[in-house]
Amino acid sequence: MKRRTFLTSAFVGTAAIALGVNLYSPEFIAANRSQDSQHRLLFSALLPVFLDGALPEVESLRRAAENRTLDAITQTIAMLPEESRAELEQLLGMLEQRLGLLILTGSMTPLMMRTAQELVTLLEYWRNSFMELMVTAYQGLRELVMASYYSCPEHWSRLNYVKPTFLGTET
After folding, report:
1. HSE (CB half, 13 Å, CA atoms) of 168?
2. Which residue, 8, 53, 132, 163, shows the most beta carbons closer than 10 Å to its own?
3. 4-37, pLDDT tens digit by residue?
């Protein structure tokens, strides 16, 4: 067997396996995907990375802040213009599929199974990438998470922000 033939067949075999894994969806995975239509699981993996230092240290408060932020992310996505929402859904869909992960991250390991340091490294690579698409993906995810987190009034105190009053009266 020639070296070129071996390399080509190995590449084709790997691509076929990746495609098969991406298309394989048993019923329990399909059911979980329909329940996670708002990408809560994906964002729950990304929140601690983007909000490092902003989330409360107490576990129950941390969980409540994460859940409130996940709800705010859903509301923020619903308010986006149709074109932006479609682009974001395409990115999130790729991040939830193994073939999309392979293309975007170079690994088929789901983001939910990666350590915080691996996610930080991945996001820093996207942030400083030479490809504008990766930089845009990083900025879009970051802005979505940060805007959703700080849209909640209970998080304003971390910014030393106080709601303005009208003529000295609280509304």
Report:
1. 0
2. 8
3. 776 777 766 676 666 665 555 554 444 444 445 6
